[in-house]
Write a structure and sequence with these properties.
With 162 residues, the chain is an alpha/beta fold. The chain is 27% helix and 16% strand.
Length: 162
């Protein structure tokens, strides 16, 4: 049996978009309704998978360990609220350095997540705050909701079913 997932862009969806790269824990400001929304989605049986471009690595502004530290922080904060993030996938690439199929709007990260977690794309959703998020989701048959950066994601609960 296949699983269903809620795929989530990171900056602007889970944490406040600052207009610059967020790679330090002290700059990672989790948006207000994220924990409650993710908890309800998880209770409905959705896997929670973060899909994020982290092009600052390719630009040598920060490293993999910085991204992993932020993701551990987010995971710990969510765990305290009863939420377990099932996985994080990130692209360390940026087109100004070198092109890569794992960077959104390409879909390789979503394809990996779908394969590794046995996800049914037709029963899954993505929330993103840019066209590239929705373009990547569309390439693998995942319905996408594009939101304004730094706004509530609680509306997704109206679209999730048991």
């Amino acid at each position: 049996m296949s699983n269903r997932a809620l795929f989530l862009d990171r900056d602007g969806v889970l944490n406040r978009e600052r207009g610059e790269y967020t790679f330090r824990v002290e700059d990672f400001d989790i948006l207000p309704d994220v924990a409650e929304t993710l908890q309800k989605a998880q209770q409905l049986g959705y896997k929670l998978i973060v899909i994020t471009n982290q092009g600052g690595i390719a630009k040598e502004l920060y490293g993999h360990e910085d991204v992993q530290k932020v993701h551990r922080f987010f995971q710990n904060q969510m765990s305290e609220q009863g939420v377990e993030i099932d996985d994080f996938f990130y692209s360390p690439n940026h087109d100004v350095v070198s092109k890569s199929l794992d960077r959104k709007p390409d879909s390789l990260l979503l394809e990996k997540a779908i394969y590794l977690h046995n996800i049914d794309p037709l029963c899954s959703f993505m929330i993103g705050d840019s066209d590239r998020d929705c373009e990547a989701a569309g390439k693998v048959g995942v319905k996408c909701f594009k939101i304004e950066s730094n706004t509530s994601i609680s509306f997704i609960l109206d679209h999730l079913h048991e």
